[in-house]
Amino acid sequence: MPETLLKKPVESQAMPTITQGLFHAFFIYDVADTIDLAELSRIDGQRFQKAQLDLRPLDPPHNHFKFVTPPLAARLDPIELSGLQAEVLIKIFDYGTMSIRATFPMTGSFEQVQSATANLRQSSELAERAETILTAALKQFSGALNQPHKPLLEEYFVIEINAFEQPITAATLTEKHSRELAGLLLAESRSLSALEQEDALRARFSYFENDLVLINWDCSLVIESRESAEAVESILEFANTQLVELRTYDDRLDNELDEIYKWDVARLQQHWLFGRRRAAERTARIRKLLVDIRELSDRSSNSLKIIGDAYYARVYRSMSSRLGLSDWQKQLESKLVSVNEMYHFATDQAQHARSDFLELVIIVLIVIEIILGLIGTGH
Q: What angle do the packed helices 226-262 and 272-301 form, to 10 degrees?
């Protein structure tokens, strides 16, 4: 084989020890149509603070992401799991979602961190602890919930590394340690194929040479300073709140479509008066659903404004793509069109039922008038 076709193997180097790191488990619930943050502050205003995004300073200095209505956040009592103590933060968004984050310290060799994070990601006890916290929060803040419903859960994990024992650049990490990074992201101890490694590391970003953000659909790796990592994690969290919102709307539309398919219009038409009333009730319900979903969808979509920060905008767009938010949005729009068509159909049926009833009334009145006329003529 010609020498030019031979590739020099990449020298294998051990991953440096992680001297400062964290593991974040996000449990994001959609619990209500909206949450009144002003009422929430009145219920427990001492603990909750506005959680506006605090991003790294860039030029120009005013470029940043901004919440239109900043969520409220509060620190809760720590929890202990598998000998590790975790700090707990609850963040509440006005469009009906609650995010519970458990943060564990994570240091040691790369193998130790990989094993510990994989165990936490698979822990059913951690999810149960989050559900217990949610139940208590729903009870305490019930007065701030508008149209509460059964919670819908979305889980997400972030592995954060703030410092290695020996400094290492993002380029060196991705070039020489792609196998280890992919295994950490996917919680796999066995060696992954080259294609899986490439896909796991496909969505990656670096601002400085020692920064690295790797985004996957259920877990991300953030190698940043603590302050910068917090900003990235807030963006990842926000994208997941959008996902759980879209899933909630999708479930509501599925339930409504199921009800519509069960609706026997022919049977309703057999009873002009009651059929008309039921059809009117159905159309009013569908109309309200369409308005509610449009309004809530716009609120969650417009809750975060991007003001010119290209780096963080790329991170957000990549996360949106990994979660398939645009696909969910298209699916939702398709179902909205279907429900809207059903609404118009139900409206037409209600009008037909009303017309039939009025025609019957007119015929009855004409018959009565004829009968009375004949009786009058006979006398």
A: 170
